[in-house]
Amino acid sequence: MFGGALTGTVDYFRKVTDNILLEVIPADPIQPAATQWTNVPDMTITNKGVEFDLAYRHTTPNGFSYSVGGNVTFINNKVEHSPYSVIPSGSASGAGLTSATINGYVNGQPIGTFFLQEFIGFDANGLSLYRDITGDGIANDKDRQALGSALPKTMYNFYFNLGYKGLDLSANFNGVSGNKVYDNTANSSFYKNLLAKGVNTTPAAIADPKEATTNSAPVSSRYLKDGKFLRMNNLSIGYNFNTKALGLGKWVNAMRISLTGQNLFVITPYDGYDPEVNTDRTVNGISSYGIDYLSYPKARSFLLGFNVTF
Amino acid sequence: MTKKLFIPLILSAIVAGTGCTKLNEKVLDESSATGLTPKQAAEGAIAPVYAQLPNIFLHTNYLAIQEISTDEAILPYRGGTDWGDNGIYLAMHRHTYTSTDPNLRNTWNLLVQGVSRSISALNSLPTLNDPSVKTFTAEARAMRAYYNMMLLDLFGLVFVKDDPSALSAILRGTEAVEYIKKELLAAEPNLESGVTTGRVSKEACWGLLARLYLNSAAYNNIYGTQLTFAPADMDKVIEYCDKIISSNKYQFSPEYFAIFDDNNDTNKEIIFAVDQRADLNGHNRMAYFSLSGDQFPLPDYVGANGTDGPAITSDFYQVWAQAYAPADPSADPRFYKENLSIYSNPADSCVPAAQFFINRGILRGQQYGLIRKNGVFVKCVNGSMKVGQLFHDTRNKPTQPVIFTEKVDFTTAGSDYPSGYRVSKYMFSRKSVSGRNFGEADIVILRLADVYLMRAEAKLRKNNDAAGALADVNAIRAARTARQKAPALTSMTLDLLFRERGFELYWECLRRTDMIRFGKYEGTWTEKSDNNPRKRLFPIPQTAIDGASNLKDYLKQNDSY
């Protein structure tokens, strides 16, 4: 289109996986081993979506060239026909938390679903309250629900390049939305009880004045956070010297000076170090998704380059 | 330079080359499955069945869930640094435990695996041709019953299974009690009498039957407000206790704490125990759990200390104090044994290393012991170990003395490192390099005093035979002759018997079961006010419930969880 200046593709994908091999806890616990591998009967995982890719390229008569482009993927992932109410994965880390699981395979939900009790605030005594889904008057593990997935609903990236004579500038961005991150670091280290005993923690521990200092912090949606982000991955500016004009053409073929910045900024509501995180908290060989536990953030780096080609 | 290097290289290549041509293997130590004698194969089949026990009787497993859930033990968030574990020990004490409690899950996993290992042994033993097979098969059957009995006691269900590939039938309540009874009775004729205390003997089986009959009123009707103890059951308790007592195989230990010493496998009072004889890779957690992090009980190892784990509640201490007032509770030899004379004679501050043993029983007030400075223990000029007042050096609070206080609760003050009176019941094993491992004291599962107390209780419950019960209780008190004896009691009631079980059996993983049977588990004590009888059973671990969610209604969670 437009003489080849605008290009693009549209892809639709749909993949159904069945006979999924998972290591599960047997229904009858009287077994030589605590877990066994099995092809979960009937269970399927359907991964479908569309991907758009668009790019536009143009050069003006006076030598100014630019291109912009990007792609966006919309994903819909769904677990179906599982005989289990949940196949748990993603064990929590931290003292007293290790027996709780965070992710799970749940019918009608994507893989990497966070299957948790929903935190709804504090009671009059400052202790945590959780939503009672079953209506039996007690909030407990029977009240766990699917509260979003670590798999983003949308993934995108876009870029632009500008060039004028020897000068060029390029940038690219990427981002996701519609996903959640479980902040296990906060869960295990930033709770108010620590403060009551004079242990260092972060202001997050005292965020809610209604919380009692004796409140414990089990795994729940309290630490489930929105994981969407937009990251400026790369920004690069450079200048190619005209070596002939400088009178160096005999000895020097090309000369370039450039400045590149990587990971310049991230826009995200996530208040952990980095939303782009996946600490491996595999349970029984079943992968965990979107759990942040004591992970390091991505570094921001600047590169100053000076290239001379002889 | 190159040449010099080259020649040795060639030489070594020649040596290596000739070496390879004459490779004669000399087998020093090797074994193969085919080389096993039938006896070895039989032992190899039964050993894994028992091997679950040390881990079940771990401080954070069975001890924690049977004791911290009661008035005998409380574990606060020590100093805000230790035993926080996101509140699981607070929840255990308050009866707010949940199905994701890791200690409940670990105990459950070990128990179900114990049942499974028993089934494996029951299937492999009959294929072997050895005289030991008959006894071992009976032991595997009795152990399957014992693990199921623990599952019934803690989680309210048993798993019935003979064929390893079959699906277990799940029984609860009376059906479960009848199943365990049937299994123990079926095993009994082929069990032996003279085996070590680490194996199920005929007498151990009788003791388990007595324990089952005594508790069956609770197991039959676990949430019942009023438990009904059938006279026929009480007769059975008396019958099996009589059989053990009249076998004359067991004697009371004149020194109470000798029952819990290293090498106690020869103690005549023990009927059934977790075998932790030397080199069996036992653990020392029973001794280590309650001591201060600044108590170093072994002159040989500077790294062996306590961990400031649980203390007794002030409520439990007051039971002792009031029973003996105006005298100090140490009038009862079971309460306390002084091994370091510095406690009564402050001048005695040098003790030869071989004679240094920490005090036993319930530890109160200022603690004395080995003083560790710069990683070594301070010594006296004569080479003896220097013994002095202890401070919280390992907590970076060198001016705060290690003074155990009666008050211990979940407030900041009540959660400090030295809060609460501590229990030093088991000997701190002399070979426990780290204080955690290499324990050499067998952990008692059943002993003669428990048998006497069970018989006394059955007599009381059956027809209020207070005189008979009193005689049994006083027989125990009179038998501790090594030091001053506890005064004989003059009357007996169920409340006094419950108190006596606490005095005799504290921290022996029996308290929760006792409290339920005596209707006291819903009582109020330090930091505990929950009175929901549904908490008598623990929740089945969530992982097991999720794992069984593909079979509808197969494994049902207990009420209220």
Short summary of the structure?
The complex is a heterodimer of chains A (310) and B (561). Chain A contains two helices and 19 strands.
Q: State the helical fraction of chain A.
A: under 10%
Report the span from N to C terminus of chain A: 40 Å
C-alpha Rg of chain B (nearest Å): 26 Å
Output the strand order for the largest sheet of chain B: 5-7-16
Morphology of chain B: globular
The helix fraction of chain B, in percent, is 25-40%
SS elements, strand count of chain B: 18
Arithmetic mean of pLDDT of chain B:
93
Low-confidence blocks of residues of chain A: none
Largest inter-chain contact set: A-B, 42 and 51 residues
Number of domains of chain B: 3
Number of domains of chain A: 1
Give the CA-CA distance, first to last residue of chain B: 80 Å
Q: Which fold name corresponds to the CATH topology of the largest domain in chain B?
A: Serine Threonine Protein Phosphatase 5, Tetratricopeptide repeat
How much strand content do the residues of chain A show?
A: over 45%
Number of helices of chain B: 17
Order of helical and strand elements of chain A: EEEEEEEEEEEEEEHHEEEEE
Determine the mean pLDDT of chain A: 88
Note the main attributes of this structure:
heterodimer, B: 561 residues, alpha+beta, Serine Threonine Protein Phosphatase 5, Tetratricopeptide repeat, 3 domains, 3-stranded antiparallel sheet, 18 strands, 10% strand, globular
Describe the protein.
The complex is a heterodimer of chains A (310) and B (561). Chain A is mainly β. Chain A has one domain. Chain A is 4% helix and 47% strand. Chain A contains two helices and 19 strands. Chain A has helices at residues 184-189, 192-196, and strands at 6-17, 21-24, 36-39, 44-59, 64-80, 87-91, 101-105, 113-116, 119-122, 128-130, 145-149, 154-164, 167-177, 180-183, 224-226, 229-241, 254-267, 291-292, 301-309. In chain A, a hairpin with a 4-residue loop joins strand 4 (44-59) and strand 5. Chain A is elongated. The two termini of chain A are 40 Å apart. With 561 residues, chain B is of the alpha+beta class. Chain B folds into three domains: 39-191 and 525-554, Serine Threonine Protein Phosphatase 5, Tetratricopeptide repeat; 192-258 and 446-521, Serine Threonine Protein Phosphatase 5, Tetratricopeptide repeat; 290-429, no CATH class. Chain B is built from 17 helices and 18 strands. Chain B has a three-stranded antiparallel sheet. Chain B has a three-stranded antiparallel sheet with strand order 6-12-9, with no helix packed on it. Chain B has a two-stranded antiparallel sheet with strand order 1-2. In chain B, helix 7 (133-155) runs parallel beside helix 9 and helix 13 runs antiparallel to helix 14. The longest helix of chain B has 23 residues, at 102-124. At the A-B interface, helix 2 of A face helix 5, helix 6 and helix 17 of B.
